[in-house]
Amino acid sequence: MENPVRGVKMQFILTGFTQELGFRVFAFERMGEDRVRTRWTVSADLALSRRYGIRLQELPLMCRGLLERGDVIEETRAIVFSEELMRTCADERAAAKEGAAHKRKAPRRPVVENPGAAWRGPQQY
């Protein structure tokens, strides 16, 4: 993923997690084009994730997405996944789910007895 602000290619790799009080702290290594690895952490409040219906399995990917977007300060290598971001993610997921449900409810054409009659025209026997 290329960071548009700095123009540097970077890759974040999940290296593990720890549990600290009510937070799950995900550890990542960022590898730049120069192949230098730097350690980053993203803390996610588990109570907030439950409030917004974010499953525990979804958190690592969401945290990596936060890092890859590149709107984090280089010197700050410990980030907190804020309530605002969790709310935004939950809203986006709900909108996608609603859109998929709406697609499934689209009216279908009724089944006709002789489906080829529409394009063949009337037949005389």
Please give a handful of descriptors for the protein shown.
5-stranded mixed β-sheet; 125 residues; 4 helices; disordered N terminus; 5 strands; single chain; alpha+beta
Task: Describe the protein.
- With 125 residues, the chain is α+β, with helices and mostly antiparallel strands.
- The protein has one domain.
- Helices cover 34% and strands 30% of the residues.
- It contains four helices and five strands; from the N terminus they run E-E-E-E-H-H-E-H-H.
- It has a five-stranded mixed sheet with strand order 1-2-3-4-5.
- The longest helix has 22 residues.
- The chain is elongated.
Uncertain runs are 1-6
Structural class: alpha+beta
| Oligomeric description of these chains | single chain
Q: Calculate the terminal CA-CA distance, rounded to whole Å.
A: 67 Å
- Estimated helix fraction: 25-40%
Radius of gyration: 24 Å
- Total number of beta strands: 5
Order of helices and strands: EEEEHHEHH
The domain tally reads: 1
What's the helix count? 4
Order the strands across the largest sheet as they lie in space: 1-2-3-4-5
* Spatial shape: elongated
Major sheet: size, sense and barrel closure?
Answer: 5 strands, mixed
Chain-averaged pLDDT = 80
Strand content: 25-35%
